[in-house]
From TrEMBL:
Listed SUPFAM superfamilies: NTF2-like (SSF54427)
Alphabetical list of Pfam families matching this protein: DUF1348
Name by which UniProt lists this protein: DUF1348 family protein
Basic and acidic residues composition-biased segments: 16-27
Gene3D superfamilies in alphabetical order: 3.10.450.50
Residues annotated as signal peptide: none
Length: 139
C-alpha cells in the first residue's frame, strides 16, 4: 500500500499554503514519527551540514534534535512554489539545557512525489543567540 499525503502536486497557491501549514503543525508536535510520515521512505535531506536518507534516519535525527532544542516552536511561511516544489522561509525558537535561548532562521526547498510525500528537503539554517525576553514565538 502506498502512503498518500494530500494535497498532491501540481500545487496551487492554496494547496502550497496547506502543505506549509501541515508541515508547521507536524514539526510543532515534536513527534519524530509523525513528522517522518510526510516523507518518502527514501527521502533525501540536507539539514545544515547533515545529510540523511530515509525515514529511519529522519526519526533518529529529530529525536536527537528535540532532546537538545528544548521548548522548540516553529513558524513557516510559503516563499514560492511550482508544480511539485515548494520553497519556505522559517524561524524557530528554542533553548538549551543551560536555558540559553536561540532563534534559528532559514530556508527550505522541498520536492514532492505524486502521492504528496516529500522526497527531497534541503534546509539552510542560521542561529542567533537571544534572551528570553526577545522571544517572538509563544509556546
Amino acid at each position: 500500500m502506498t502512503d498518500k499525503r494530500p494535497p498532491f502536486p501540481p500545487f496551487t497557491a492554496g494547496t502550497a499554503r496547506e502543505k506549509v501549514q501541515a508541515a508547521e503543525d507536524a514539526w510543532n508536535s515534536r513527534d519524530p514519527e509523525r513528522v517522518a510520515l510526510a516523507y518518502t521512505e527514501d527521502s533525501e535531506w540536507r539539514n545544515r551540514d547533515t545529510f540523511l536518507r530515509g525515514r529511519a534516519q529522519i526519526v533518529e535525527f529529530l529525536r536527537d534534535k528535540w532532546r537538545r532544542e528544548l521548548d522548540y516552536r516553529l513558524r513557516k511561511e510559503l516563499w514560492a512554489f511550482t508544480d511539485n516544489r515548494i520553497a519556505v522561509r522559517f524561524e524557530y525558537e528554542w533553548h538549551d539545557e543551560a536555558d540559553q535561548w536561540f532563534r534559528s532562521y532559514g530556508n527550505e526547498n522541498w520536492e514532492f512525489d505524486e502521492n504528496g510525500l516529500m522526497r527531497r528537503r534541503y534546509a539552510s539554517i542560521n542561529d542567533l543567540t537571544i534572551s528570553a525576553d526577545e522571544r517572538r514565538i509563544a509556546l
